[in-house]
Write a structure and sequence with these properties.
The complex is a heterodimer of chains A (852) and B (212). Chain A is an alpha+beta fold and 852 residues long. Chain A has 26 helices and 29 strands. In chain A, strand 2 (30-40) and strand 3 form a beta hairpin. The chains are: A alpha+beta (852), B alpha/beta (212). Strand 29 of chain A pairs antiparallel with strand 2 (42-52) of chain B, so a sheet runs across the interface. Chain B: One of its GO terms (biological process) is Rab protein signal transduction.
């Protein structure tokens, strides 16, 4: 807005002047200046203008100085004692120093942040573009030679301490950048939630740590009719023997000039502020916390020095309700603040004039209430309205008149001091009684004569043509608990205006914090929240944390149930998680079903299944591995539980090596475990030509199943396999039980489970390479270790024998080669189709050789 | 009103089974004591808010299974801790001897900057004492740790020892925390920073680059 004043100086400037503020230069005398931030090709400079009062055109302002924002520039925001007071800024450029005072508020904040941003973005300074302005500049400023050194940098954020030094400052600023990114990443909703919970709880328990202490608030309102102060305001402001704690002084019609109206700038502001400052009670020291003005409506807010530190969150706002419903000739200004633990809002309003316009005044009140919005410290919270405050003090020229009575009767009642009768005709009283305006507000009894309208400079009623009916235009109302009015009066001796000033002293009970009790309450809340949070950590109880699987056998399915019961207060997600350096959450012979899931309230059964197959059997047989594992059951955002699984495995010929089995005359389970483990690694000569288990199965089939239809193609029974396995492992029966198909399948399973196949992995590739060459194939077999060669020859002889009965058993070379090559000649890894064909070709040589 | 929370730390309780780790935690967070011993089978944790130097510190305290067979698994929790309590039982010489082993595991698996405090628990059972206070002191000194004899039963030195460890962690991380506090001046979690750190790379130089 002030920016517009620079309009005519130069088009260039309007184009590049980003922000402007009016400030007071704190030199020897206080002088008003306009300060503009000008940008051109990413370089910035501050332009300082002197100006006439009510500057309107370019002729009214004069460029005084240009301060390039270069390395030699610094701005220092002085820490302010009272939040909401004017901001003092010290500008330094080389050796020149300048101190100025910027009005408190969002515009100054914005301006300073823009200056700061300009400073942060400074480049190697050239500032050529400034030379043409320097000619116009009358002041001290001429752009000094290009500075290259890094100058001193001093900066504070909001008066919270100073950071000095060059490198350090760079560090801080750059950290600021990365950290704000980090802050976004760190957004943890539960943190915010917790803060809010604490705030809520503190508010709920406020009575526990606050007590009520009374403070005296002086409230005054004075419509000065555009006059300048000509008499002392002491009779109005200092009528009490004791100095009040606060002063809330409101003026209306401070300046009736067009300039004030259009540019919201008036010299009267300073004049009346000075008059008030001089009129304050002499027995105490006061600090001006806030001055807020909208055209002619001004509110001054002073506090006794010793209370200043208990004031916080000061915000000021203005709402115009004049012409077009927006302009500032009518409306209100307000200050809100926190004092100790109470929140207060003081409003000074000037409502619509004229006797018949009371509904317009009601409307103004409503507009002010709805449009006066105070920014909150936490930007995520919605703005505060006037009526959200627990204490509202409302003063001003409310302009409500006395109606239905003629002027002489009114004056007669006043003469008789029958204010009670008169008050019944007061529009404000009537409107409040009807609850159309100021609902919930109180006003003290009016025991003074109307304050409007007098002949200026006298105590005589208006003698002008209009001869207005006297009225109580100037009023003081309040809303809130613990407020007692000490007095409510007008001040007849002041004669500057056509109104008389009104004052009231309110004794207000303020919630003051007992630090000790507050600390205790706070700690209690934190403790109970910790407790709540701990109770809300997901938790389950497990039916058992140790499981033992006794005597697990090869290919035997075993299962136990782990019951999870949600004993926490929240639903939870569970999962068995991987341990460090392990490929899966459990050993390959174990599965948990389900391995993860969601547990709302009740319980869930998890099956822990143990199954030893051909890939896990060898190491268990040889004793290199035990049935031992610990599962880690993890609850999301919660605890971990360890579930121990142990078991004993009964060694089996299934999954044992040909080599080992050839050393065992006894059934495997009749041998001590240590003996088995020793045999695995021994190089001892073999006791048997082939494992007796192979002989038992093959011999059984040779004698009973040579003519069995679909041998090796029809599956056996699972239960019969188990008996056959036990029979082989324990030697309890002389002949194998079960059907031919079950024995045949057992043989296949046996071959499949061999840790090293009959044709060992080591020669697999060779077999593929010479699969078409009979001689080579035979040579490979002839070079196998003795026991492997024996088994191979034994099996092929048996298969050739079976082929002789192909009329009965319907087997042919192709079928047998396909089945047996896959078991006898297999790789340790996966096999493709081509390899499969070659192994079959390899094996076929041994089946057809003698058959013709 | 001042901001409520500034940092989050993870603290870990280590020591032989039965030295009273769970009881220490229970006493500290809930001010409760249950004399019967139920082995912790797994890893449990509780939250507690402390105020240190005007900073609200939220601590997440992890209670681990002490039994030997779980030790290979519990080791994987070390690397997430900023502070560790090494706990023994003053009535068990054996648990005191094992502190050396626990300490060497920490050296191997915990972060370099981890802060440690030695705690001799069950100080109320004087008649059964097997480890003299002086022995504890000496060991702590040798390792450069602070030492407390505590009793979860009588609530002796509980708050003191937990607060001390939190202080040490705060000091050790002060520089980094301050750099962050200056700018975001509210919530941040050291634990989360470390997660992030790992993303950035675990190198010291890289750390600096992305923290400051």
């Amino acid at each position: 807005c002030q920016c517009h004043r620079i309009i005519n100086i130069n088009i260039f400037l309007t184009k590049y002047c980003k922000h402007a503020v009016q400030c007071l230069l704190l030199d020897n005398v206080m002088e008003s200046r306009l300060l503009g931030l000008v940008e051109h090709i990413k370089e910035h400079a501050l332009f300082l203008f002197t100006h006439r009062r009510m500057a309107i055109t370019g002729n009214d302002v004069t460029l005084q100085e240009i301060i390039p924002i270069s390395y030699d520039f610094s701005s220092f925001v002085c820490p302010c004692t009272i939040l909401g007071a004017d901001t003092r800024v010290r500008l330094t450029f080389f050796n020149e120093k300048m101190e100025c005072k910027l009005p408190f508020g969002s515009q100054t904040r914005l301006f300073l942040s823009e200056v700061n941003r300009a400073w942060c973005g400074k480049k190697a300074p050239k500032f050529d573009w400034l030379t043409k302005y320097q000619k116009n500049s009358k002041g001290l400023g001429s752009v000094p030679p290009i500075a290259t050194s890094v100058g001193k940098i001093t900066k504070t954020g909001n008066g919270q301490g100073t950071v000095k030094g060059e490198g350090r400052n760079e560090l801080v600023r750059s950290s600021r950048h990365t950290v704000s990114n980090k802050a976004q990443m760190l957004t943890m909703p539960q943190f915010g939630l917790r803060d809010n919970l604490i705030k809520c709880e503190l508010l709920k328990n406020e009575e526990a740590y606050t007590y009520i202490q009374n403070f005296n608030f002086f409230l005054g309102t004075y419509n000065v009719n555009g006059q300048t102060p000509r008499e002392s305001l002491r009779p109005w402001l200092s009528a009490t023997p004791q100095p009040p704690d606060f002063y809330c002084v409101g003026f209306q019609e401070l300046d009736l000039s067009k300039e004030a109206f259009f540019f919201n700038d008036t010299p009267k502001e300073q004049e009346w502020m000075k008059a008030v400052s001089e009129g304050l009670h002499p027995d105490a020291k006061y600090a001006l916390v806030k001055l807020v003005r909208l055209v002619g409506i001004m509110l001054l807010f002073y506090v006794k020095k010793e209370h200043a530190k208990h004031i916080s969150e000061v915000e000021a706002e203005a709402v115009g309700t004049g012409i077009m419903g927006r302009m500032g000739n009518k409306g209100a200004v307000a200050v809100r603040f926190q004092f100790h633990n109470s929140d207060l809002c003081v409003v000074n309003s000037h409502l619509a004039a004229h006797i018949e316009e009371y509904e317009r005044r009601n409307q103004d009140y409503k507009d002010i209430c709805s449009r006066m919005l105070f920014r909150q410290q936490d930007p995520t919270l919605p703005p505060l309205t006037i009526l959200k405050h627990s204490i509202v003090l409302w003063l001003g020229d409310l302009n409500y008149r006395i109606s239905e009575l003629d002027v002489d009767y009114v004056k007669d009642l006043i003469l008789k001091k029958d204010f009670e009768t008169l008050h019944n005709y007061d529009q404000l009283k009537r409107q409040m009684d009807e609850e159309t305006v100021f609902v919930g507000f109180m006003e003290g009894e009016i025991d003074f004569q109307p304050t409007y309208k007098y002949d200026t400079g006298s105590d005589y009623w208006d003698t002008s043509e209009k001869c207005r009916v006297p009225a109580w235009c100037d009023r003081i109302l309040w809303r809130g608990k613990n407020i007692v009015q000490q007095y409510y009066q007008s001040h007849m001796t002041l004669r500057t205006s056509d109104h008389k000033p009104v004052s009231s002293l309110l004794e207000i009970g303020i919630k003051v914090v007992n630090e000790e009790a507050y600390k205790k309450t706070f700690e209690d809340i934190v403790r109970s929240l910790d407790k709540l949070e701990n109770e809300c950590i997901p938790s389950v109880s497990v039916s058992q944390s140790e499981f033992h699987f006794k005597d697990v056998k090869f290919m035997q399915h075993r299962s136990e149930t782990l019951k999870l019961h949600n004993d926490g207060q929240v639903p939870c997600q569970f999962e068995f998680i991987q341990k460090l350096d392990e490929p899966a959450y459990c050993k390959p012979w174990l599965t948990a079903n389900p391995a993860k899931g969601f547990l709302a309230q009740a319980s869930i059964d998890i099956d822990l299944e143990v199954f030893v197959n051909r890939s896990t059997a060898p190491e268990l047989n040889s004793g290199q591995q035990q049935l031992e594992d610990i599962l880690v059951l993890h609850l999301e955002r919660g605890k971990d539980y360890f579930i121990s699984i142990t078991g004993s495995y009964l060694p089996s010929c299934f999954g044992s090596s040909i080599h080992t089995l050839c050393q065992m005359r006894e059934p495997i389970q009749e041998m001590p475990l240590e003996m088995i483990h020793r045999l695995v690694t021994s190089k001892r000569s073999q006791a048997l030509d082939i494992p007796k288990e192979i002989w038992m199965m093959v011999d059984h089939l040779y004698r009973n199943a040579s003519k069995q239809e679909d041998l090796f193609q029809q599956p056996g029974l699972r239960s019969e396999f188990e008996v056959i396995r036990d029979c082989l492992d324990t030697g309890t029966l002389d002949s194998l039980p079960g059907s031919n198909h079950s024995v045949a399948e057992s043989l296949l399973l046996f071959l499949d489970a061999l840790p090293d196949p009959v044709v060992p992995f080591s020669v697999y590739q060779e077999c593929l390479d010479c699969s078409s060459n009979i001689g080579q194939c035979k040579k490979i077999i002839s070079l196998l270790p003795q026991c492997h060669k024996n088994v191979f020859n034994y099996l092929t002889a048996f298969l050739r024998e079976l082929l002789k009965n192909s009329a009965y058993n319907r087997l042919d070379v192709n079928i047998l080669a396909t089945i047996f090559s896959a078991l006898l000649v297999r790789p340790s890894t996966k096999q493709d189709q081509m390899e499969k064909r070659k192994t079959r070709e390899f094996f076929q040589h041994f089946l057809i050789q003698d058959s013709h | 009103m001042a901001k409520q929370y500034d940092v989050l730390f993870r603290l870990l309780l280590l020591g032989d089974s039965g030295v009273g780790k769970t009881c220490l935690l229970c006493r500290f967070t809930d001010n409760e004591f249950h004399p019967s011993h139920i082995s912790t089978i797994g890893v449990d944790f509780k939250m507690k808010t402390l105020e240190i130097d005007g900073i609200k510190v939220r601590t997440q305290i992890w209670d681990t299974a002490g039994q030997e067979r779980y030790q290979t698994i519990t080791k994987q929790y070390y690397r997430r801790a900023q502070g560790i309590f090494l706990v023994y039982d003053i009535t068990s010489e054996r648990s005191f001897q094992h502190i050396m082993k626990w300490a060497s595991d920490i050296d191997e698996y915990a972060p370099d900057r981890v802060q440690k405090v030695l705690v001799g628990n069950k100080s109320d059972e004087q008649e059964k004492r097997q480890v003299a206070t002086e022995q504890g002191n000496k060991l702590a000194k040798a390792y450069g740790m602070d030492f407390f004899e505590t009793s979860a039963c009588t609530n002796h030195n509980i708050t003191e020892s937990f607060t001390r460890l939190a202080e040490l962690v705060l000091q050790a991380n002060k520089k980094d925390l301050e750099a962050l506090r200056v700018s975001i001046n509210d919530k941040l979690s050291l634990a989360d920073l470390e997660e992030e750190e790992r993303v950035c790379g675990s190198h010291d130089d890289v750390q600096k680059a992305c923290w400051c």
